[in-house]
Amino acid sequence: DTAVSQTPKYLVTQMGNDKSIKCEQNLGHDTMYWYKQDSKKFLKIMFSYNNKELIINETVPNRFSPKSPDKAHLNLHINSLELGDSAVYFCASSQVRATGLAGNEQFFGPGTRLTVL
Amino acid sequence: AQSVTQLDSQVPVFEEAPVELRCNYSSSVSVYLFWYVQYPNQGLQLLLKYLSGSTLVKGINGFEAEFNKSQTSFHLRKPSVHISDTAEYFCAVSERGSTLGRLYFGRGTQLTVWP
User: Fold this and answer.
1) Scanning A12, A86, B3, B46, which has its CA 20 to 30 A from the CA of B29?
2) Residues of A in contact with B36 (CB under 8 A)
3) B43, A4: Cβ pair inside 8 Å?
4) Do the strands A64-70 and A53-57 form a parallel or antiparallel pair, or are they unpaired?
5) Measured between alpha carbons, how far is residue A117 from residues A35, A38, B102 in Å?
6) How close A2 comes to chain B (CA, Å)?
7) Are B88 and B110 in contact (CB under 8 A)?
8) Residues A56, B103: contact at Cβ < 8 Å?
9) Contact between B4 and B25 (Cβ < 8 Å)
């Protein structure tokens, strides 16, 4: 069973279009994340939701809007796509505990490679 | 705020040679430490993590890392690498006691193993 899944795996689209990426986790985690990985492999966190509440909102253009219908799902909608949005987008999940020895290990999905032409 | 520095962006080695990938971090609070591996066209996979206790941590695929608090380092080592270890390796930290669970990643080290 896939722990963190993303759809689609590949997304090729024209500038100006609107697209969505979906993420689902079946680990029972309470927190989910979106990352953007650029062509140099640099990972940048974009958003995080805990139990459907937005808890991390990095400096990201307003064209990007996350939505979490429930704690197992976190979707990313992108309006008016630009060439610079081309990247690999990763979803991740974790069970965040403020105390104890669990750490904050995150489990990553396989990624969605977005290409904007 | 936390920061993670991976000192080498690329490390080429020959098969069966030992390797060390270096990671230093900066933090004003206690942290958890992680190494993740990303194989080509895949997501990130946890190699190992340091939460507390013994400073030498063993992970999957024969990797180990040592936490050095005085030097704020968490270097990754493997005594003998295989071609299949070719991948991007990321060091990451998170704050103990944080309710955000945020990971701060280094910029990655590309390990290339040559036959």
Assistant:
1) B46
2) 108
3) yes
4) unpaired
5) 21, 16, 32
6) 12
7) yes
8) no
9) yes
Q: Which residue type sits at A75?
A: N
Closest residue to B90, CB basis, from A43, A96, A102: A43
Name residues of chain B where pLDDT drops below 70.
none
In the prediction, which pLDDT does A55 show?
87
* Contacts made by residues A60-65, CB under 8 angstroms, sequence distance 24+: none
Model pLDDT, residue A1: 67
Radius of gyration of chain A (CA): 14
Per-residue pLDDT of chain A (117 residues; tens, 9 = 90+): 679 999 999 999 999 999 999 999 999 988 999 999 999 999 999 999 988 888 888 888 999 999 999 989 999 999 999 999 999 999 999 987 655 545 678 999 999 999 999
> Cβ separation of B100 and A55 shorter than 8 Å?
yes
The two counts, helices (H) then strands (E), for chain A are 0, 11
Which of B88, B54, B80, B55 is closest to A90 using CA atoms?
A: B88
The size of chain B, in residues, is 115
Under an 8 A CB cutoff, do B38 and A101 touch? no
Query: For residues A93 and A107, what is the distance between their CA atoms, to the nearest angstrom?
Result: 5
Is residue A25 within 8 A of residue A18, CB to CB? The reply is no
Distance (Å, whole) CA B62 – CA A8: 33
Query: Among all residues of chain B, which has the CA nearest to that of A99?
Result: B97
* Interface test with chain B among A23, A43, A90, by most B beta carbons within 10 Å: A43
CA distance A50 to chain B (A): 8
